[in-house]
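[agent] plan:
  1. take the single chain provided in the ticket
  2. run structure prediction with default settings
  3. attach structure tokens to the ticket
  4. add a short note for the reviewer (M.T.)
[agent] executing step 1
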Amino acid sequence: MKHKVQIHFSEMLFAIQSMRGLEAHGEITHSFRFGTEKFMNPQDIRIEEPVTFVIFGATGDLTRRKLMPALYVLFKEGALTNDFSIVGFARRDYDDAGFRKLMSDSLHEHSRAEIDEPSIQEFCSHVRYYRGDLSDASAYAGLYAQFEQNVLPANRIFYLSITPELIDSTVGNLKHAGLITAPHSKHWTRVIVEKPFGNDAPSARLLNHRLLESLTESQIYRIDHYLGKETVQNILSFRFANTIFEPVFNRTYVDHIQIT
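[agent] step 2 finished; step 3 output follows
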């Protein structure tokens, strides 16, 4: 019997190119999967537990153009629990109202979803701002106090939209401030590390080693789509130069290809 599969280049290429060295050294066990399950749409999933998203580098271009619009789509599609919070962490001088205005303007400019003012206002009511310097350890204690004072959900997703040289110290400061929970505690923590994840295999291994001093593998999510860019631009070569793929890269076996 022939089974059609879906090929997700966003996972496959990243795993093949950027993490090959780490996997060879046994340092990554399950960050990537090569499944045949359908790529899930927002309407197919829902976060049922209360959660706080903390975005480091929250006033930067990535947050305005990509992260907030993506969270807004999840909100509109009902994929987020009603009890969620988004905390922007950056050095610029904003208060909650000013940051909400910045994010509202960004949604109007960059959201690919249909927008309406009531839903934007409701979404932004979950958004707050914390001013701090990533290199200042006391700022993380202040962030912890924000969680306590505002009774923010203790399940936390930290998105590190920051320069690579700050990743190690930021995660260490989060750990020292008590913001990273133990793997089997009542509440969970996830840390998303943005590109680039090192500039070569040795630096990627070093960064991975440092992260694992404060986190477990299951708590780490890595994003480095630029390392797969060259392969995406050479999909035909990728197909015909690899005998393991070429015989099955056709409409009989491939349902569709997603490059996300």
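[agent] step 4 note for reviewer: Residues 61-76 form the longest helix (16 residues).
[agent] ticket updated
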